[in-house]
Structure formats: structure tokens, C-alpha cells
Amino acid sequence: MDKRTLLYDPSKVRVLVVDDEPSIVKFLEFGLRREGYLVQTARDGVEAVAKARESMPHVCILDIMMPGPDGFEVCKMLKAMGNVAVILLTARDAVDDRVRGLVGGADDYVVKPFSFEELLARIQARVRTQFPQVLMQQAFGPFVVDDARKEIRYRGESLKLSSTEYELLRYLLQNHGLVLSKAQILDHVWGYDFNGQDNIVEVYISALREKLGDRDRTLIRTLRGQGYRVDLP
């Protein structure tokens, strides 16, 4: 499993469910609301486009076979409006249909009958990929970076960090496993126009190690002549 897990608040994600089968609409509406999502529903393409214009959804679960404009046409209209993740939901599983949907702009394709858990995972994946602005936290092994609170927790405990220490540790964690040179760190954390001494990186790394109890330097490693690398336990 990837040590990096992205988390977000579902109550900030708008989902539009479009299907002419009342049982499927009711099932998805109930399940998604239970998960915390903001859900709207539509029974045909015309209603779907109208509701999308009123409150642009982040994700649209879209049936293909509907009265009026079908899912392929609705998908094109939604994509023309802006950034919306379209997941086609249909009983048609022919390869040609899948290709037509994806070429027409759909972001994913789920065939009926389907698992709600799988559909939920696909929704989560699309939100993480297309709407990073709703991400609240990023987990890296024992660390949790909370951008909303400007806080980093280590093994459940909040670290007392200055704003610069926060940005430095956040940058190191987001690039865990990679060697970051002092120049890269200076550019990202202090800015391209920083005119101070590059030993400021060493000073801040030392401060982070102290706060993390990383006295043996196994968490934030120094690679002589190359830079620093975070190794997650």
C-alpha cells in the first residue's frame, strides 16, 4: 500500500447522479449521502444539464441509455461547462462503448451491475486527481499534514513548528524517498530570491530532527554532497 494517503471532506464534494432507473437513483443517493457527499439527482439528460448549470458538480455519475440526449451527449455538454469528473454507469459493456465514452471525455466507466464500494473508490480517485483544492489532509506513514490547520502531526501528536519549519517538513514529506538538494529546498521553502546563507537549511533540518527525536538521523537522512532524504518507517 502507498504510504501516502489523501483525505478530503466529502461534505465539500458535489455529486450529480443521472439515471432513468428510480431504484438506482435512490440507491446511489442514499449511499452517497450516508458517506457525506452533497448529492443531486436527475432522471434524464435535459434535467442533468440544467442542474449542472445551476451548481456545477465535482463528479457526475452518468447513465448512457436515457431518454432525450444520451450519456455520451450529456458528457460532452458537461465537459464543455468546466472541470467535472464524469463516470459513465451503464449496462452496455461492449469495448466500442467504453472507447466511445472515454474518447468523448468521460473520466471513468463502470458497468452494471456494480459494487457500491468500487464506485465509491472511483469517485474518491477522481476527486483526489481533479480537485486537489478539497484535500484537507495528507498522510505519510506516521505523519499527517493538515493544510487547513497548517499543522503536522507525528504519531498522533501535533508538532510545534514555526511557519518555515512547517513548509520545510511538508516539502520533505511530500517528496519522501527522494534526495533533495540544498538548492532545491532553498528554492521551494525560502524562494528563488533568497540571498542568505545556504547553511540555513542545515540549521532548520537540525531543529526538525530535535523536535522529531531523530537524533540518530534515520528519519531525515543526510547524504553527503547530495542533500537530504526522508525515509518513512
UniProtKB/TrEMBL annotation:
Domain OmpR/PhoB-type: 135-232
InterPro entries, per database record: CheY-like_superfamily (IPR011006), OmpR/PhoB-type_DNA-bd (IPR001867), Sig_transdc_resp-reg_receiver (IPR001789), WalR-like (IPR039420), WH-like_DNA-bd_sf (IPR036388)
DNA-binding feature ranges: 135-232
Keywords of this entry: DNA-binding, Phosphoprotein, Transcription, Transcription regulation, Two-component regulatory system
Residues of the signal peptide: none
Modified residues (4-aspartylphosphate): D63
Pfam name, any one: Response_reg
PROSITE patterns for this protein: OMPR_PHOB (PS51755), RESPONSE_REGULATORY (PS50110)
Highest rank taxon of the organism: Bacteria
Domain Response regulatory: 14-127
PANTHER family: REGULATOR OF RPOS, TRANSCRIPTIONAL REGULATORY PROTEIN TCRX-RELATED
Name of this chain's protein: Response regulator transcription factor
Species assigned in the record: Alicyclobacillus sendaiensis PA2
